Amino acid sequence: MRRFMYNKTKSIETAVKTIIKRLNKPGNKGKRKELQTLLKKTKKQKQLYDYLFETVSVLIEWMRFDILQKPGYTPTVRQELYDFIVSELYKLEKVHPHRIRKVRRSLKKNKNKILGFLEVLDDKFSDIAEEFGCSINVIWQICHMQKYSTQGKKYLRSKLCMYLRLGTKLPAIEQAVDAAIDSTETSSSMIENFNSRLSVGW
What we know:
Radius of gyration: 24 Å
Strand content: under 5%
Number of helices: 10
Distance between the termini: 12 Å
Helix content: over 70%
Low-confidence stretches: none
Shape: elongated
Number of strands: 0
Number of domains: 2
Order of helices and strands: HHHHHHHHHH
């Protein structure tokens, strides 16, 4: 879907340049009005495909990094973001159904399968929370920390906040969270295929 939108933006960009070139040729003065009308129409198409490509790209990045990565937000936040992405694709579909409709329908139909790994993580995190005597929300916050580089400011800032709350228990909890993440599969081959499609070539 994204590749299609990208290719359309590039082909229309080429068409705009070709029309402008024709307009600037002295021999095309008789066709000037026709070419100007065509240029206006083609530029409008370019605006549409630029918008579609940029919007689809943002939605895909959210899906890839904020929903499908195991380290990250709570299931509730991811489900809400997932539904938002589907609803935004539906809006785009009304403007341009080709490619978008198929993807949107697939996402809507397979939501439970795609997000199934979150239920597994939530169960594991419940056990960790019980073992260390803290809330599951804290465990999910530690899970979210794992998105960041361990040398980065975001990770270090989050870790400091967690240390102030959990004290010396933090290293053991973080180790348990990492183990839970590593041992959780993102389930079926369909999801692996879907995730690879999001990342290939971009």
